[in-house]
Amino acid sequence: MQQVPAIVDGRFKLFESHAILIYLACSFPGVADHWYPADVSKRAKIHSVLDWHHSNLRRGAMLYVINTTLAPALGFPLNLQAAAKAEKTLDASLSKIESIWLKGSGKFLLGSNQPSIADLSLVCEIMQLEVLDENDRARILGPYSKVQEWIENTKNATKLHFDDVHGVLYRAKVKLRTQRENAQSQPSLKAALQSKM
Ligand SMILES: N[C@@H](CCC(=O)N[C@@H](CS)C(=O)NCC(=O)O)C(=O)O
Q: Which residue ranges does the record assign to the GST C-terminal domain (predicted)?
C-alpha cells in the first residue's frame, strides 16, 4: 500500500495505525490491560474514540498543518483558505475532547486514570502541531487547559519512549522554525517562499 505507519511481525504485515495498536496490545504478552482492556464495554468506548478521531481530530490537525506549514516541502502550495476551514474542524475536535472525553477528574480519555491506545493515538495526532508557528499553536491549544494537561499526563505515562518516537518531529520543528526566522530576516527568501503559496 506504500503507506505509513506499517509493521512487519514475522510473515505478518499490517498497516493502519489503530489496527497496529490493537494488534500490538493483543499479541504481545505482558501488555497491561489498561492499554486495551479485555472488558467489552471499555473496548467499545475506545473504538468509538478511535473511529471518531480519523474524521475529526486527524482531519483538522493534518489539513491545518499541511496547508499552513508542510505543503511546500511536499511539493504543493500553501492554502490559507483550506487552513481556515481545517482550523474550524480542529477547534471543534479539541472542544469535544475537552468537554466530553476529558470530563471529570480522570487523567486520561473516557475518565480513566491510566492511558489506553486511544490516548496514544489522539495525543500523537495533536503533537504534529509542534511544527507550527508558536503563535498559531498557542492560539489553537490555548483555550483548552484540560487538553494541555492530558498531553502532559500522556507524555509522563510514556516517558523516554514518548520523546524517542517524536524525535523526527522535534527535528522537523527546529528546521521549520529556522526557515521561518531566515525568511523574516531575508526579504528575498520570504518572497521566494511566498511565490510557492
Ligand atoms: N488512516 C491511516 C492514515 C495514515 C496516513 O495518513 N499516512 C500517510 C502519511 S502520514 C501516508 O502514508 N500517505 C501515503 C499514501 O496514503 O499513499 C492511519 O491511521 O494509519
A: 39-197
Tens digit of each residue's pLDDT (9 = 90 or more) over 103-142:
999 999 999 999 999 999 999 999 999 999 999 999 999 9
Residue bearing the CA closest to ligand 1, atom 17: 3
**pLDDT at residue 184, as a whole number:** 80
pLDDT of residue 161: 95
Coil, helix or strand at residue 6: strand
Burial code (b: 16+ CB inside 10 Å, e: under 16) for 135-163 equals ebeeebbeebeebeebbebbeebbeeebe
Look at the domain 39-194 and name its fold: Glutathione S-transferase Yfyf (Class Pi); Chain A, domain 2 (1.20.1050)
Distance 185 CA to ligand 1 centre (A): 35
pTM of the model: 0.92
In this structure, the residue with its CA closest to atom 9 of ligand 1 is 4
Say how many Å lie between the CA of residue 12 and the centre of ligand 1: 19
